[in-house]
Specification:
Endoplasmic reticulum transmembrane protein, 218 residues, transmembrane helix, 4 helices, mainly alpha, single chain
């Protein structure tokens, strides 16, 4: 019994060391514990733990009984002392065994929860990375669109400058043509006036000639 308890305690201590430190055997131990906690495994573990607890209580009761008998008799015989030491050792080993089993269960639970949180954090990081990549692509597309719009704006500005120069040139030509047309109108008026004067002079000459001819005839 004592050798079996020592074997169980040393085995549990080895499992705890494997779970605490990251070794190649840690994954295998975790897989084994996952399988133990599935199906009928928990029932078997609880049954074994309950049996050990019952034996522990029995050993404690036996120690209390031996101690009470020694108090009643006033002394403890060597046989009772040996039995007392044996029950104390068994109770200590069984208590340590239950405590280490509880430690293994808690370590397995926390390691599994830590793994799940790491996976969730990796998923969140992956989603954030994908979102950042999407934002980067969107920013790149916006940058390309802005570059295109700036090039288009420069092209429109150059076209506007050309059209403005053409408008100024057309306006200058229009002013020159207007001045030239005004000069032509003035020249036309002058020519009309000279024509009218020449007609008047011709008419006056005709009248003189007609008068001088009528005098000669008389």
């Amino acid at each position: 019994m004592i050798q079996l308890l020592f074997t169980g305690i040393f085995s549990e201590m080895a499992l705890i060391l494997i779970l605490v430190f990251k070794t190649p055997f840690r994954k295998l131990v975790l897989m084994g514990l996952d399988r133990v906690k599935r199906g009928s495994g928990p029932i078997i573990v609880k049954t074994v733990a309950g049996t050990i607890l019952v034996v522990l209580i029995s050993s404690v009761y036996s120690m209390m009984k031996i101690q009470k008998r020694g108090i009643d008799e006033g002394f403890v015989n060597p046989t009772d002392q040996v039995l007392m030491a044996k029950h104390l050792l068994e109770a200590t080993l069984m208590g340590a065994m239950l405590f280490l089993a509880l430690m293994i269960d808690r370590l397995h639970h926390y390691i599994r929860e830590l793994r799940m949180r790491r996976k969730s954090m990796e998923a969140v990081k992956k989603q954030s990375r994908v979102a950042e990549d999407g934002k980067a692509e969107e920013n790149k597309a916006l940058g390309e669109e802005m570059t295109t719009l700036r090039a288009r704006l420069k092209q429109l500005e150059s076209e506007l400058e050309v059209k403005t120069k053409e408008a100024h040139a057309s306006e200058t030509n229009a002013v020159a043509l207007r001045k030239q047309s005004e000069g032509f109108l003035l020249e036309y008026d002058r020519l009309l006036e000279e024509n009218q004067n020449l007609r008047n002079q011709l008419q006056s000459l005709d009248l003189r000639l007609s008068r001088s001819g009528s005098k000669k005839n008389t």
